[in-house]
Amino acid sequence: MFAIDAAARERGLDHAARHALRWEQARPALDIIKQRVEEANGKALPASALGRAAKYTLALWPRLTRFLEHPELELSNNLAENSMRPVALGRKNWIHLGSKEAGPRVAAILSIIETCRRLQIPPREYLAAVLPGLADVPVSRLADLTPAAWAARRR
Asked: Nearest 5°: phi and psi at 51?
């Protein structure tokens, strides 16, 4: 599955083409995997490790294959995990934040910063453009202020 997505990235495919590629190449492999898991589920004792693993896999099958219907979904959350590593490493340094509300606020700010970095938007420029008028923006228009929407308007 990862090789299929890597090939799509290398070829610079858009979501529609990536969807077609996944459907053409990943779907048959997933059908074989599901068939083998179902066979194992039928042969294994329900309380055995294999039986529990097969039952668990089949219960989560719709979630495991959701990427086939939604080409914008990544197979892995490695990008998010790697971008949050500095947060995990710096946690002890941030004990001074002092309130329970501070953690979610810091997480929201870091999420915006990492989104800017991923989209190659200078975070300082984005924040300087968005923050001054933020108090006057109705909640219904907040989606227009996301880094992706902001960058799209600038192009």
From this structure: -60, -45
Among 38, 56, 39, which Cα is nearest to 47's?
A: 56
Same domain, 63 and 88: no
Spatial contact of 58 and 37, defined as CB atoms under 8 Å apart: yes
Q: What is the residue type of 5?
A: D
Q: Which residue has the tokens 């190659």?
A: 120
Short-list 56, 65, 108, 76, CA closest to 3: 76
Which residue, of 50, 69, 88, is where some domain finishes? 69
Residue-number span of the structural domain to which 149 is assigned = 78-154
User: pTM above 0.85?
Assistant: no
Do residue 88 and residue 105 come from a single domain?
yes
Q: Express each pLDDT in 6-51 by its tens digit.
A: 898 899 888 899 999 999 999 999 999 999 999 999 999 999 999 9
> Is the same domain home to 85 and 40?
no
